Structures are given as C-alpha cells and as structure tokens.
Amino acid sequence: MGIRAEHINYIYGQGTAFEQHALKDISFTIEDGQFVGLIGHTGSGKSTLIQHLNGLIKATDGAIYFNDENIYQDGYDMKALRSKVGLVFQYPEHQLFEVDVFSDVCFGPKNQKLAKEEVAERAREALQLVGLEERYWEQSPFELSGGQKRRVAIAGVLAMHPEVLILDEPTAGLDPRGRDEILEQISVLHREKRMTIILVSHSMEDIARYADRIIVMNQGGKIFDAPPKEVFAHYKELEQMGLAAPQITYIVHELKEHGIPIADDITTVAEARSAILQLLGMDSR
Amino acid sequence: MGIIRASRLIYDYIRRDEEDHVDEVNRAIDDMTVDIREGDFVAILGHNGSGKSTFAKQVNGILLPTEGTVWISGMDTRDEDHIWDIRKTAGMVFQNPDNQIIGNVVEEDVGFGPENIGIPTEEIWRRVDESLEAVGMTAYRMKSPNKLSGGQKQRVAIAGVMAMKPECIILDEPTAMLDPNGRKEVIRTVRELNRLEGITVLLITHYMEEVIHADRVIVMDDGRIVMDGTPREVFSQVQELKSYRLDVPQVTELAYELKQAGVALPDGILTRAELMEHLLPIMKKSAGITTDGN
Q: Any CB–CB contact under 8 A between A229 and chain B?
C-alpha cells in the first residue's frame, strides 16, 4: 500500500527548444503512515515530483502506483486520487476565494458530491483539526492573518479526507510562532490520524524535527533517501547542492574534529544539549 | 538628529461601512518613538501583526501618521511638498520580487525609476551601471528578469531602488519567499551596500540569522518597541524573545540552554565560531585533551 514511483522520467517541452529533463529515473515507495521530508534547492524537481503523485502531471515515462493500482491505467479514477492524495501548494492562501471561511472549506467535499450535512460535518472537523477557532468561521478569509489563511487552505484539503497529505513549503513567509503552529498541527495529523505526510521544506531544522525519512533531490535526480541522521551526515555534499544541514550538525561535527567523543548524528538542540551535558558529567535534566 | 525619526507615532487602520461610518479601528502602531542614525544597519523583528511593516510604510510616506510625526532627513512625511523627496531618500523593497519587476530586460527595469523622475538619459545609464555593479548583477543586465532566480530578482529590485540614489533602503521581508541560497545572496548584497556605500538599512525580517550582523536590533510587539539594542544584547534575552513569539538562532539557543544548566558560557552567543571559542576549551578540559598538545 502507499505510493510507489517506478522509474519516473519527466521532460518539459519535449521536442522543442526549451526541452528540459526535469525528473530523471525516480523510484521510491512511501508506506502508509510515513512522514517524509522532501528537500532540494529551487529548480531541483521537487515541485514537479509532488505534482506527479496526485496525477496533476503525467510522467513522460515510468509508472506510479497508489495503493497498488497503476494510476496511468485506462479508466483509473483520477478525481478520486486527487481527494485521496491531498496537495497543498505553496502560498495556498492565494487560492482562497469564497465569501466566508466555512464555505471555502466546504468547496472540496461539495465537489465530491457528498450530502450537504456530510459536507458541513467535514468542514467543521477540518477547521477544528487545523485549530482555527469557531469565531473566525463566518468571516471573510481575506480578513485573517497570513497564518490563519494558510490554515483555512489546509483545512480545505483535509475536508476531502485524504490518506496522503503533501505540503509544498507550508511555512514559507510565516513568523516563527505561525510556523511552529502549522508544523505541530501537521504532526498531530500524522500521529493521531495516521496520515501519510510528505513535507517539502527549505528548513533543515524543521525537517530534522519532524520527518522520519528524507528524500533529497538535485538536478532532477534522487540523491539521498534515508533517515534524517544519515542524510545530514552528508552535510558537505548537501552544501555543494546549495542545501545545508541544521546548524547543530555543524557544531557537533566541529566538536568531533577537535577530538571530543560526541555522537556526530545529532541534529536538534535538545539532543545536543543532553549529549554535551553528559560529556561534561553534568545533570542533563 | 537621525535620518529616520518618529515621535509618538500612532497609526490606526480604520475600516468604514458603506455609509462611511467607522466600523472598526485597529491600532497598528501605538506611541512609537525612535531615532535611526545615518549609516546604521538596523533590523526590525516582530511576529506577524506586530506593526513592523506598518512602520516601514510610514518611512517613505505610503502611510501617514494618525497621530505623531515621522521625519525623513528632517522632512515631515505629512508635508505634501516633500513626498517625492522623501521617496527618493528612502527607497523600499518588498517581499515578493515578482510584484516589483516591470521591465522586459534587467537594465530597463533598473532604469525605470530615474527615467520616471526625468533624469537625463546619460545620467540614467550611469546610474544603471553603478546600481547593477553594486548588487553584483552586471552580468545579467541584458537578460529577461523572468529567467532569474528569486534571489537575483530581489537584487535587481534593490538595484532599481539604488538607481534612485537613496540615502536609506527599507526592506520588508525581502527574503521570505527565497530559498537558503537566495536568502544569503540578498543579505550579503544589503550588507555590502551598507558597508561600502554607507546606505542606511532598515531590514524587516523573521529570520534571526539575518540580523546578527546588524548594528542595532529593534523588536516590536503590539505596535510598540519592546526591545532595542545590539544583536548581542537582544539575543541574550532568550526567554523575553520567546514571549514575543520570536525565536533565536539554534546556536544561541544551545548556548543559552547549556548556560542555564550550569556550563560557564557568556551571554548572547551569536555565531558558531563564538560558541566554539568558549565551549571547546571546556569540553577539551573535561575530556582530558590538552589544548597545546594536539
């Protein structure tokens, strides 16, 4: 089950002067319930890749299986796929359009031809999931703050009851608190609803904190696919690709280079704190 | 007397209904007094809705005070006779590069501002040359802005402001939509303009890493200035920053946590090098490594 990509290739503008090989032989399997971080600098192919996963872009070559069914086979229900694999684009608040928050969230399930009560029920549930208080529901979405708007947009996708949630830089442009709130909510969906999450982000700190697996894209190819600690151990190669590891990784490696016997796979402040205190023989509580 | 001054500044966003009655008043800036010295690199931090962008818009007269006064180089922003001088003095760069670029070719975009105010052609080209050189985009002058990366587009936008020969540049979250490389590019450019050209910089941002080189950091909350000092002074107050919904660089946070647990580190560590300088001797001593021997 889950999503399986087999030898995906995608070429933009094939046969024209602008031909560009955007994805090169990408294969992976994402099991149900995983939290995957997808990283790569601008133009590495990550946005193209996620649009393949819910059928918005069709691969030039290769196949994608969702729950063991090839989505390119004749008669495959693409519309159903798009509600099962929910995609939250960058700056999704630009896509809000309804007169009030509640109607905006209803749009997706309404399009799924669900009964009116079911639609309303799902909208309520989705708005509660993203933690938007009820007093905002009747307001115009355009009067909300950036972080609130974004939560409305995410609720709109959640109301379709996706099994997989793909988010393209959901925290871009938010302040630190707004960022933490959104990421916490995503983490709750993952833990409590067992939703599969694919998170595209430039923030290695965020990815290190939440993902249990990282896929690194560079120039259309999949370069690394491993748990965060293994991927960040390649921090020098990541830098050459215009990426970086979390700051903490650099500190730990520097200590190690000076002969301090610290584990070099530490990626978060909390881990570094307790490891350093332990080495100093101090109470790390 | 500084280049940017505000005295008891208040700004209300007023919403009116169809009959023009006041429906709702939202106080975005609440009694703010500040004096910014010429040539300084000043960073303004604050969460969404803290009033920092509203303040930026006051500086070049996009918004005018509800109460109080703002002076740019001694000119009152409410003085209509000076509005164009004020905008020439204080140039503004916004968050989204795609909303600010209008030319089909980079050099044309950069020349747009000076052309608009009737600068002679020869002078326009000289300014375009200088501005592109200052932001390191000379090699791209004949390119279409559409083909540039986000960081490059932002540098073109900054060049466009530079071509107006401002004394001061205000950047309102110029890196929020960029990837890490683009972010570094833009910040490096801004720092150079400040250092080499002596331009006063007012940088509004959420990214704490971008402000550690500033001369001064101002933290806003609820329309007021709540912290004001050097980066080191401000970042040593980790708990206070968190109470304003901000966070600190990971390095600073780790140093703070270690210090709280009893490790003898100084306050307000900002960079990896500083942390190493202080932490490494302690760790080496504890591990029994002699500093001079290896």
A: no
Of residues A258, A261, A280, nearest to B263 (C-beta): A280
Q: pLDDT tens digits for B16-49?
A: 888 888 888 889 999 999 999 999 999 999 887 8
- In angstroms, rounded to a whole number, what is the distance separating the alpha carbons of residues B61 and B43? 19
Element (H, E) at B194: helix B180-197
Instruction: Tell me the per-residue pLDDT of A261-283, one tens digit each, with 9 for 90 and over.
Output: 999 889 889 999 999 999 999 87
**Which pLDDT score, from 0 to 100, does residue B177 have?**
78
CB contact under 8 A, B283 and A280: yes
Helix, strand, coil percent values for chain B (each to nearest 5)? 45, 25, 35
Contact A277 B247 (CB under 8 A): no
Report CB contact under 8 Å: B284, A258. Answer: yes
Sequential DSSP letters for B246-259: ----HHHHHHHHHH
Residue A29 in contact with partner chain B when CB distance is under 8 A: no
Q: Are residues B274 and B136 part of one domain?
A: no
The answer to whether residue A239 sits within a structural domain is no
Angle at A30 between CA A24 and CA A33, to 5 degrees: 155
- Which of B52, B179, B280, B291 should we substitute to test contact with A (largest number of A Cβ atoms within 10 Å)? B179
Tokens describing residue B144: 């279409």
> Residue B262: its chain A contacts at CB < 8 A?
282
Q: Tell me what the mean pLDDT of segment A145-172 comes to.
A: 90
In a domain, B87, yes or no: yes
Rg of chain B in Å (alpha carbons):
22
Read off the CATH number of the domain in which B162 is found.
3.40.50.300
Give CA–CA dist A4/A66, Å, rounded: 7
Q: Is there a contact between B48 and A178 if contact means CB atoms under 8 Å apart?
A: yes
Query: Domain containing B263: what range?
Result: 249-288
List of E strands, A67-220 = 69-70, 85-88, 164-168, 196-200, 213-218
State the pTM of this model: 0.82
Q: Is B280 on the interface with A (CB under 8 A)?
A: yes
Structural contact between residues A260 and B264, judged by C-beta atoms closer than 8 angstroms: no
Q: In whole angstroms, give the CA distance from residue B91 to residue A39.
A: 35
What domain range is A263 assigned to? 246-285
